[in-house]
Specification:
With about 280 residues, the chain is an alpha/beta fold. The chain is about 45% helix and about 15% strand. Helix 2 packs parallel to helix 3.
Amino acid sequence: MMRTRKFKRFAAVLDGMGDDLSMGDDFTSRLRACEPVAGCWISIGHPASAELLAGVGYDFAVLDGEHTEMTLEALATVVRAVAAAGTDTVPIVRVASNDPTEVKRVLDLGPVGVMVPSVETAAEAERAVDACTYRPHGRRGVAGYRAAGYGANLQEYVASASEEVLTIVQVESERGVENVEKIAAVDGVDALFIGPVDLSASLDVFGDYDADEMQDAVDRIVDAADEANTPVGTLATSRAEVDVRDDWGVDFLAMGPDLAMLGETARDYLSTYRGRHE
């Protein structure tokens, strides 16, 4: 069931550098209107596959810098590839850890925001927000790189980025669930994201998403997000999971990863052919 709450501060990422860096407006307005927002999950660090997926018309694309071999250079290329698709798809980068230096370097590439994995306490959520926010409210370092038009729009970017850049934190452990109400209430946390696989493992019900422990945890996360007026999303790794995960009551859904999509399609093609010749 879709709820009627809004983002605290979802906004477009950049103005002034070009159309590819001011593509968050539609994403923002749709979320604030509580319309369904759908994204893809990119694990293949190649610009062609990223550009293809962005061209499909997803609202956002999560670039996975945690569980893949993508380097900072590869992430930069894929961010550009998403923009090159010419659609309204906006890039979000999942960083490898809650490290201010890594967050700073990723944000300088120009995504609309970052997703921070395995946030378990309010203090960790505050650390993530600080890394995404310029002084005096945060500790993000200033540089005239791509996000700021390579320096051409530095003043304008610094003045607006703290409100425009998204800080999405993942709740994907038992400890995170225990503290989720405090995490969701942290000022500057734009959204929660349920990491279903790691969460199930942490609850000792690995892969059993129907387990009572898992369902109770999901309900608590969704309720905490509701109470804090903070959006919550999750990941669907198959067609069947799209329906199941959407029924969790989340506000947005990422689908994939691209590796799973590729494998599923390849198996379907092969099964179709072999079925004709049995």
